[in-house]
Amino acid sequence: MKPQSYELHMLLSETPGDEMKDVIIGLEVHVQLNKLRSKLFCSCSTQYHDSEPNMCTCPVCLGLPGALPVINEKAVDSAIKVALALNCNIEEQIMFYRKNYYYPDLVKGFQISQYDYPIAMDGKISIEADGEREIRIKRVHMEEDPGRLIHVGTIDRSRYSLIDYNRSGVALLEVVTEPDLRTPKEARLFLNKLRNILEYLDVFDGSLEGSLRVDANISLAGGARAEIKNISSYKGVEKALLFETVRQKNLVRRGIRVAQETRHYDEVRGITISLRTKEEEKDYRYFPEPDLVPLRIGDRVDDIKRALPELPDAKRQRLVKQYDISDHHAKVLTSELKLANFFERVATKVDANLSATWIADVLKGELNYRGIGIDAFSPEHMIQILQMLKNDKITEKGAVQVIRTILDEGGAPPEIVKRKGLLKIEESIITRAVAEVIKENPAAVKDYHDGKNEALHFLMGQVMKKTHGRADPSMVSKLLKEKL
Amino acid sequence: MITKKDVEHIGWLARIELTEEEKEKFTKQLNSILDYFEKLDEIETDAAPMHHVFGLTNVFRDDVAKKSMSQEDALQNAPKKEKGCFKGPRIV
């Protein structure tokens, strides 16, 4: 590539708003099918997260001589489910291949993967960036997870690695996008959407460590592309891509050509570093895996399709229609299957719009603030709170306090309302407090009549103080204005 | 035509160190193997590609987890181990 012209140089450096326009990103997302009980080609358990290293292995996933792989039927069905949800064409017949390379995380010297005849191709999903964007899926294929390398120190400095093969052989699905993503943020939105779909399908638990790993290809328009390997967190993807965008733009600005290379994302330091590998696709010497026979999967597809659950986009539309709630609320509520289920449970018992507001805006905010999931809150408690709110038993402020108390200390709504004295007080008590406050603050009353609006706020504050914050503010305001 | 450079590259992919004599020898041998394969081109065939020699399809296993090997057994053949892990060289 030629060094940048002065004009382009100025454009790149002076229009931060357009900074991302010429960035091209494609992702290879590896997700573990971790709802399966056993690995892809052997019967070792996938529940290794709490075990010691190398406690979930057998001759197959340790690659011992003579061991033979047998494929997990449910893994294939799960992969078909995903492919259908990503609107892909499912292949009639699929095959497995050996991908040959030497690396300590790979026991056999090859990884059983797919090459020609992958499970599915040509799909698409939509994300909501600045408007709706369609991201094409190039292919979806199955493969086995390698073991886990524990580098002592950072990857470019450690002298040896420790290897744990508990993960070796767990079923992975690789989802490859076309280079349709334009910003690191879009990459994050895509991953969120993918995770959401996978969790709706009940094939994936994204909260488990190492359940998702991403390789990202990124280039500036017209430039060479860098492949960033093995980004292992959702946030890491956006950060790594932002770093890489800036790095490539800085090179271009200084008139240096961006090299086509593989880079590693260092999560701790937040930077990407060159790995200087010399392997290209042909070096993997793919050939058909002789230990696994071809799978004819065409006749399974219809049954699986019929049994597909409602997916996020469809659920969002249905919630809007069925409960007459805003599209924004429906979007938030369907961003997690558990949250959507929670909402539906509550909305059938109390006002749906009230439920949507309190779950999507208030409860979700309180959960996010504490970094916890919806599991921490019972729908029955939400129903009780909203019923009390609807029946004018507690104020909105009181309802928020009940939610916070449950999250921070535990307990049930009626008991908390009683213990914290949150029961909304009756009009007669407020009326009395209003009369007292007017009597005790003649100066403020005069100010109010002189047109000073702050005086009303002061008087309201005094009434709230007298009623220990349990009076309904709108009621206080109304009564005060009447009496003044 | 396989060159000495190809042989060096293949050796690197397999992490095998080759002497100069071996490089010469394997270059010759690999070329003669390739020449032999070219004989296949002489056959005229319109048969469909064969994907597997058995002609079997759909050999599956149920998704049932069974007991694994002990850590001790798993590490039995490891030349070096540390903290329940295999210990290997850094390769990047």
**Number of helices, counting only DSSP H or I runs of 4 residues or more of chain A:** 16
Number of helices of chain B: 3
Query: Quick check: average pLDDT of chain B?
Result: 89
What count of structural domains of chain A?
3
Written overview of the protein:
The complex is a heterodimer of chains A (484) and B (92). Chain A has helices spanning 6-14, 73-85, 184-200, 234-253, 301-306, 312-323, 327-334, 337-347, 352-370, 379-390, 396-409, 413-419, 427-440, 442-449, 453-466, 473-483, and strands spanning 23-32, 71-72, 89-90, 93-94, 97-100, 110-113, 120-129, 131-144, 148-151, 160-164, 171-177, 212-220, 226-231, 261-266, 271-274, 287-288, 295-296. Chain A folds into 3 domains: 4-303, no CATH class; 312-419, no CATH class; 427-483, Arc Repressor Mutant, subunit A (Orthogonal Bundle), CATH 1.10.10.410. Helices cover 40% and strands 19% of the residues of chain A. Chain A has 484 residues and is of the alpha+beta class. In chain A, the strands form 4 sheets. Chain A has a 9-stranded mixed β-sheet. A 3-stranded antiparallel β-sheet of chain A has the order 6-5-16, with no helix packed on it. Chain A has a two-stranded antiparallel ribbon with strand order 4-17. In chain A, helix 13 packs across helix 15. Chain B is an alpha+beta fold and 92 residues long. Chain B has a domain at 4-41: Histone, subunit A (Orthogonal Bundle), CATH 1.10.20. Chain B is 35% helix and 10% strand. The radius of gyration of chain B is 22 Å and the shape is flat. Chain B starts with a helix and ends with a strand. In chain B, 8% of the residues are buried. Chains A and B meet through strand 2, helix 2, strand 10 and strand 17 of A and helix 1, strand 1 and strand 3 of B.
